[in-house]
Design brief:
alpha/beta; 139 residues; 5-stranded mixed beta sheet
Length: 139
């Protein structure tokens, strides 16, 4: 099982944003968007990471938004209710959630683990730095 770290960053929320993923073997990627939100960058990082890497993966993220969707099966309720949340409002970021959830279900070999951000985990610090630098390039 390959451990892949992901992160998103935003300079203002909304504002210029960046995303990144990295694996301890040195593989990584990052990108940016000129006007976005932190949540969209977190989702983009995970979607890009899973799309770019085959085989069983453990996605390690400091985003409870991402991790809890899969640990607490939020996606099941969203799909069952026609993509509305508990408040009866449309689920935010559906354009990213739908392909991400479909990909995770299709692959059936992706798990998620939460890591506390800014806690000294070297790989989490790396993807944070890459995502922040990518966001800064949009300024």
């Amino acid at each position: 099982m390959t451990a892949i770290y992901t992160d998103g960053a935003c300079q203002g929320n909304p504002g210029p944003g960046g995303w990144a993923w990295a694996i301890k073997d040195g593989r990584s990627n990052f990108g940016s968007a000129s006007h976005t939100t932190n949540q969209r960058m977190e989702l983009t990082a995970v979607l890009e990471a899973i799309t770019a890497n085959e085989g069983p993966l453990t996605v390690i993220s400091d985003s409870t938004y991402v991790v809890n969707c899969f640990h607490q099966n939020w996606w099941r309720g969203w799909k069952a209710k026609g993509w509305v949340n508990a408040k009866g409002e449309p689920v935010a970021n559906q354009d990213l959630w739908k392909p991400l959830i479909d990909l995770v279900l299709e692959r059936d070999n992706v798990t998620f683990r939460w890591v506390k951000g800014h806690s000294g985990d070297p790989m989490n610090d790396l993807v944070d730095q890459l995502a922040t630098q990518a966001a800064s390039r949009q300024l």
